[in-house]
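hey so u asked for the seq, here:
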Amino acid sequence: MTADALATELANTERRRLRALVDVRLEDADALHAPDFELVTPNGGTWSKEQYLGGIASGDINYRRFEAVSDIDVMVDGDLAVLRYQSLIDIAVWGQQAGLLECWHLDCYRRDRDGGLWKVRWSQATEIDVT
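ran it, structure tokens below
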């Protein structure tokens, strides 16, 4: 596979992951997150895969919108890929009123040894202050 084709595949994988989170397609979301996944939230907290996907399953984390609004830049080195992009997120967490966030994302994917599938291992979102 060419470098451009791999970058396109990874960008599409990230878009599919975001859509699975919004649509609460837990089987798809589970398959796209590594077992040791960790999210660093815009406010600096950390969530494990179990906390994150469990919150989505229960509705405690409710994405109403989560989409890339910039190109997704991809850097690949062997079985490791880093994706960087800007997003718009409309989310309600633990009963708080929904709010719109603009964020930068840095996501680290690694290729699964059991079939060559790419799964996100680390994800960090940094809120963009638009004031």
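The chain has three helices and seven strands. The mean pLDDT is 94.
lmk if thats what u needed
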